[in-house]
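Batch manifest, entry 17 of 40.
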Amino acid sequence: MLKKFGQLLAQKRKEAQLSIPELSTMSGVNEARLAAWEQGEGESPNFDMCYKIGMAISSRSGQGFVLQDLWQALRADKIMGDQLSELYFVNSMS
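Output type: structure tokens
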């Protein structure tokens, strides 16, 4: 089963033994944004932000495919969000 972006981000960050401030410094992404994403809040990151985060985590941990995993989770969240919106729209029309 696919994990949500925020859950996967938190998991990968912890596996790399990085704190949010450390990941922020390494990736150049604001701490508050990172924390919000891990909580499933805020505007979704773009590819450049995913790239920076993925590279920072990979450089620390040696984990492979971090960027791909994060991007896949983000895309899955978007698809699921779109499907839920469509369901709401269909149900509200009934």
